[in-house]
Write a structure and sequence with these properties.
seven-stranded mixed sheet; about 325 residues
């Protein structure tokens, strides 16, 4: 079993992850800069601007099924919206009337990008390192969550941005460390803050997982929970305390409208008034709680053992 786990870890570290980037943008025109760009058997100048023509990617008169970059670093930009560089090669394809950009990232580069995206601004090393291991575990436990890629760069998978010096150092310090349960990587979940106690996966309607996500006390959030209120039309309130129901309401009324799954509700004059605590689905690692433990001197192992009590931290 140990040999199998070691071989699996080595394989995951060696293999690049295919991550769909800029996934929240409707891409119809994209500027691409890389040491080498190729499309339809032709070498393009860098940078080049590409668009759609039916099912083809086109740069001026040159078209093909996919543009491919070579050289190890690529910069993708949408004029007036976003520009981002990635330490990997990319493919740009046409799918369902839009461009899809997929970058091949080394696992540790992806971990650095996820830490920068999911836990920005936290100066506490042990909290950042706990987040890095959780992100690496998630990437190690899943593959092919999308048609064209293993993962996307949104919170549907893990929010990923450009790595920073801090996040890259964290990925390096924790390199290869993964949460495991019965020899398999844990699909680690995490969220911004809770109301003083995390939730079990079944509490929010998540699909069953081999790893038993437990509810644990969270001292930092219990001392000073992030509280909020919201209101909704009664006819659009499902009354279901599930993550799917929360996200559906968020799509209708805004992403911060129902901030967590920890709330109480009351009905007043055709409206539902909601009073809640925390931010996020509530399962797994509480990022605010991890920062609180780190501030009290806990190392990343203590943090992860607290929020994932059934898991081991191994290479």
């Amino acid at each position: 079993m140990k040999l199998v786990a070691l071989l699996l870890t080595c394989s995951l570290q060696a293999a690049a992850l295919r991550i769909q980037v800029l996934s929240l943008f409707p891409l119809t025109v994209l500027e691409i800069e890389a040491p080498s760009l190729r499309l339809g058997g032709e070498v393009l100048p860098s940078p080049s601007k590409v668009g759609l023509r039916g099912r083809l990617v086109c740069a001026g008169p040159i078209c093909g099924e996919a543009l491919t970059t070579y050289g190890g670093t690529v910069r993708l930009s949408v004029k007036g919206a976003i520009a981002r560089s990635y330490p990997g090669d990319a493919q740009v394809m046409a799918r369902s009337g839009s461009l899809v950009a997929v970058v091949n990232l080394d696992l540790e580069d992806a971990v650095a990008g996820a830490v920068a995206g999911e836990m920005p601004g936290t100066p506490l090393k042990s909290a950042i390192d706990a987040q890095a291991i959780a992100a690496r575990s998630y990437y190690s436990a899943h593959r092919r969550r999308h048609e064209a890629a293993d993962f996307c760069d949104s919170t549907h998978c893990q929010f990923l941005t450009a790595g920073t010096a801090v996040s890259r150092e964290s990925a390096l310090r924790t390199r290869g460390l993964v949460l495991r349960y019965r020899g398999e990587p844990v699909p680690a979940l995490y969220f911004r803050s809770c109301g003083g106690r995390t939730l079990r996966a079944e509490d929010v309607g998540f699909a069953s997982s081999p790893y038993p996500f437990a509810a644990v006390d969270c001292a930092a959030c219990l001392r000073n929970p992030a509280v909020w209120t919201a209101q909704f039309p009664e006819e659009q309130w499902t009354g279901q305390h599930t993550e799917a129901a929360r996200l559906e309401l968020a799509r209708r009324f805004g992403w911060d409208s129902l901030r967590s799954n920890d709330y109480i509700e009351r009905r007043v004059a055709g409206k539902v008034i909601v009073s809640g605590k925390g931010h996020g689905h509530g399962v797994g690692l509480c990022q605010r709680g991890a920062a609180g433990m780190a501030a009290q001197g806990a190392d990343f192992r203590s943090i992860l053992r607290h929020y994932f009590p059934a898991a081991s931290i191994v290479e």
